[in-house]
Amino acid sequence: MPQTRPTPATDQTTATPAPPTELSLEERLTLIDAAMTVRLDEAKIAYEVNTAHIPTDPVDLADVGTGPIYTEPAPQPELYPTPVAALLQRAHHRLITGGWCSGALVDEDGARCMLGAIRIEARGDSGLEANAAAVLLDAIRRKFGDDVASVPSFNDTHSSGRIPLRMLDQAAGLADARGL
After folding, report:
1. pTM of the shown model
2. How many CB atoms are closer than 10 A to CB 96?
3. CA distance 132 to 149
4. Which of 105, 123, 118, 122 is nearest to 167 (CA)?
């Protein structure tokens, strides 16, 4: 008997599969969450198996410190032996720890401008304060030119304390080099 080959019109076995539908974001996140949960569970079991041989002592909660923790910055040592340089160094440190501001000597949060920090660190010695402000203005003018009218005007032109802090630090080094 002769064999007949099926023709495409008579072959019913080849059906075209439906195109895959794209998953929504929620469906993809659900699948990823399930996969990560499985991986974390496997990691947890592996950790327990790998550390089962390590002896541990229970923690006595009486040994755990529950009192207040001192979080203030450590006091900065006096780096400069001369009074004006030491004052500028303390003013720099005050701005780092207490905050910097512009437009006022002291703002409502207690942050200070450059002159406000010098004034509080001078502790009432107006001569020392004036000398420190003069050295600071000189350091500013060396870096930014003679157009700077005063320390407060320089301070108020900045939106962050980065440059004023740097200038206080440089002025402290200048005062020390001058023996002030």
Report:
1. 0.57
2. 16
3. 16
4. 118
**Structure tokens belonging to residue 109:** 């949060």
Among the listed residues 157, 151, 143, the one whose alpha carbon sits nearest the alpha carbon of residue 117: 151
Q: Which of 167, 145, 147 is nearest to 158 (CA)?
A: 167
Domain residue ranges in the chain: 25-52, 83-178
Torsion of CA 40, 44, 49, 53, to 10 degrees: 150
- Please state, in angstroms and rounded to a whole number, the distance separating the CA atoms of residues 90 and 77: 9
Please report where in the chains the tokens 């440190």 appear, as a residue.
93
Residue 150 to residue 173: CA distance in whole angstroms: 20
Helices (H) then strands (E): counts for the chain: 6, 0
Alpha-carbon gap, residue 29 to 23, rounded angstroms? 10
Residues 140 and 130: their CA atoms lie apart, in Å, by: 15
Closest among 163, 162, 128 to 148, alpha carbons compared: 163
pLDDT tens sequence across 107-135: 888 889 999 999 999 888 888 999 999 99
